[in-house]
Design goal:
Blueprint lengths: L17 H18 L3 E2 L5 E3 H7 L5 H6 L2 E4 L9 E5 L4 H10 L9 E10 L11 E10 L9 H18 L4 E7 L3 H18 L5 H9 L13 H5 L10 H17 L4 E2 L11 E9 L22 E5 L3 H4 L7 E7 H14 L7 E7 L6 H20 L4 E3 L6 H11 E7 L1 H6 L1 E6 L5 E5 L3 H6 L5
Parallel strand pairs: 1-5, 7-8, 12-13, 12-14
Antiparallel strand pairs: 2-4, 3-4, 5-6, 6-11, 7-9, 9-10, 10-11, 14-15, 15-16
Bound molecules: adenosine monophosphate.
């Protein structure tokens, strides 16, 4: 016997009834985004490797060790082989698409959202997968469109608070920081480099390397022994110039005015190189913020944030586009589902049932009659479904007992359709919660099945 095949490590199949929750979250996100005037963008799942190397940054974990990259062979003389990568995140693809389609030329602010799979070769664990899903949004445009305004940052954060609240996520915390302009960051990087020189030899291997190549990334380290050293390093807030300080102060005062609570976290530099100024993460109670030394109680098993994002004022230029400051975020959909599932487990919702199960009563011996009653049942199901009812269709060869057993698990009613019912147009309907059996004329069936009064 050949070996059975399984989903690849770090990937998973999403099955009903879980997919209903995924759909509910996606629908809620689409609804909120529409109210904030965002439109959907769908970009390819793979892109040229250079896109991510240039934007996310060569020295980041994502680019240096987590990308699924391959040499895509040429199929024809006219084609060149090229290095392609499954997207590890979607912001770079969105900005690439906006440049390619000249979206910035309109002078308008672009407000785009996406929902889709991303791929990173991380060590799989609960809440961390190699194929995972993100819901994200970007607000980007030429400076004349107001894209640089701190109001954009505050609005995005207020929208996220609204989305989490509307989803019913309780116990979230917004962690907020500013990593300054690229000049501020460069200055801070040098301050850090100098401060790290004497202490780096006592730190983990990754930090020793980063202390030289990209000191800012040291703040992402989660090795417990390194935390006291990192906590004692200079803070980025002290390297911000006046403009960056004023921008950050304006973001905070708009959030204060809107009543969106937040916690300042000066270690929040985020794992991608393109961020400037405002950076943020939303964590869930029990999930400690990125890089925090306290372990917290990981209710969901994962040690990470629900979502993260920030401003990326130089990204468009990095990708060869015009100046187009922007801000965006990516929500980890898998983690949102885990969080909501954990909440629902404490407070389970009643199981959703179909309105009716149609049970054709056939004749197991006469194949022609069986075929006829099955076809009649399909017609009845079609009629009811077109009227908006949720119908499950049985099978004429089932005995009555088997139909009842099947129906009882999945529907509120069973509708019996035998030859007599077909002729008379009067159907027998049993309501499982009351146990009551009723004769219902076919023309009144849809109303009967959908009215709670029939219970
Ligand atoms: P990032 O793109 O790294 O800023 O991540 C944004 C959000 O995506 C995180 O806060 C997580 O919720 C989610 N995320 C990132 N990596 C993974 C992963 N490997 N598996 C599941 N969710 C992830």
């Amino acid at each position: 016997m050949s070996q059975t095949l399984k989903a690849v490590r770090g990937t998973r199949d999403l099955l009903p009834p879980d997919t209903a929750l995924w759909n509910r979250i996606e629908a809620a996100a689409r609804d909120v985004f529409a109210r904030y005037n965002f439109g959907e963008i769908r970009t390819p799942v793979f892109e040229e490797t250079t896109l991510f190397a240039r934007s996310v940054g060569e020295e980041t974990d994502i680019v240096s060790k987590e990308m699924y990259t391959w040499e895509d062979r040429a199929r024809a003389q006219s084609e060149k082989s090229q290095s392609l990568t499954l997207r590890p995140e979607n912001t770079a693809g969105v900005v690439r698409a906006a440049i390619e389609h000249n979206l910035f030329e309109s002078g308008q602010l672009q407000k785009l959202y996406y929902i889709g799979p991303q791929f990173r070769r991380e060590r799989p664990q609960k809440g961390r997968y190699r194929q995972f899903y993100q819901i994200g949004a970007e607000v980007i445009g030429p400076p004349s469109s107001g894209s640089e305004s701190p109001l954009r940052d505050a609005e995005i954060l207020e929208m996220l608070a609204t989305l989490l609240d509307e989803l019913g996520i309780t116990g979230w915390t917004l962690h907020l920081n500013s990593v300054g302009s690229s000049a501020d960051r460069a200055r801070y990087n040098e301050t850090l480099r100098a401060a790290l020189e004497p202490v780096a030899p006592k730190m983990c291997q990754d930090c020793q390397r980063r202390a030289v190549t990209n000191p800012l990334r040291v703040l992402d380290c989660k090795v417990p022994e390194d935390q006291p050293i990192i906590d004692a390093l200079p803070k980025i807030a002290d390297s911000l110039d006046e403009d960056s300080q004023a921008h950050f102060a304006a973001v905070r005062s708009a959030l204060d005015a809107a009543g969106v609570p937040y916690t300042l976290n000066n270690r929040l530099v985020r794992g991608l190189d393109y961020y400037t100024r405002t950076t943020f993460e939303f964590t869930h109670r029990g999930l400690p913020p990125h890089g925090a030394s306290s372990a917290g109680t990981p209710v969901l098993g994962a040690q990470n944030a629900l979502l993260g994002g920030g401003r990326y004022d130089g990204l468009s230029e990095m990708l060869g586009g015009p100046r187009a400051p922007g801000i965006g975020f990516a929500i980890g959909l898998d983690r949102l589902v885990l969080t909501l599932q954990a909440q629902l487990d404490q407070n389970p919702a009643p199981r959703q049932l179909a309105d009716a199960f149609i049970a054709p009563l056939g004749d197991a011996i006469d194949a022609t009659k069986l075929q006829a009653i099955n076809a009649a049942a399909l017609v009845l199901a079609r009629e009811l479904r077109h009227k908006g009812l949720w119908i499950e269709l049985g099978e004429g060869s089932f005995r009555l007992k088997k139909s009842f057993e099947a129906a009882d698990k999945i529907a509120r009613h069973i509708v019996i359709l035998g030859e007599d019912e077909l002729k008379s147009g009067i159907l027998t309907v049993k309501n499982f919660s009351t146990g009551k059996q009723t004769k219902v004329p076919r023309a009144e069936l849809a109303v009967f099945l959908s009215t709670p009064a029939s219970e």
